[in-house]
Amino acid sequence: MQKTFPQRPWYKERWPWLLMAGPAIAVVAGIITFNLAVQSDDGLVSDDYYKRGKEINRELRRDEAATQMGLTAQVLFDPAMQRVMVTTTSRTGLPDRLRLQLIHPAQDDYDQTITLQRTGPNAYAGTVKPASANHWYVRLEDEGNQWRVQGEWKPQEGAGVVLGQPALEKVE
């Protein structure tokens, strides 16, 4: 005599549920990843990246113009007073107003543009917001975008940075 087992519906068996769990988890994880991507824009890519890429030659001319002027600048930050002081040296005269940019390497929300006013011969000052990052690109330029000097500032290494300092040539 043959023994028969009662037939159970498929949804009461464990194997179909285990087999469906993998694709179901993948769909839920995909939805969560999509929501995170939409809600947390990191702002790393500029909107006009193609245009900016084509302008690289014009940007290099500004660096060359600063080199021909013999322009260097010492930038000192005073976070307690929220001030920035800039001392320049140049073979030519400089305007009464300069523009200083603090550029965060990854988050453009932290970027600052400071207008510097002449306070004396070769001296400029401006107001800066407290900077919380550990690494900044610093750019000093005229308001007509004819020249620029730039460098990197790491606040943990000191309160200042020298911009436009010519690189030492290798001695052979």
UniProtKB/TrEMBL annotation:
It comes from the Bacteria. Keywords: Membrane, Transmembrane, Transmembrane helix. It holds the Pfam family FixH. InterPro entries: FixH. The chain crosses the membrane at residues 15-38. This is Nitrogen fixation protein FixH. It comes from Gulbenkiania indica. The lineage of its organism: Bacteria, Pseudomonadati, Pseudomonadota, Betaproteobacteria, Neisseriales.
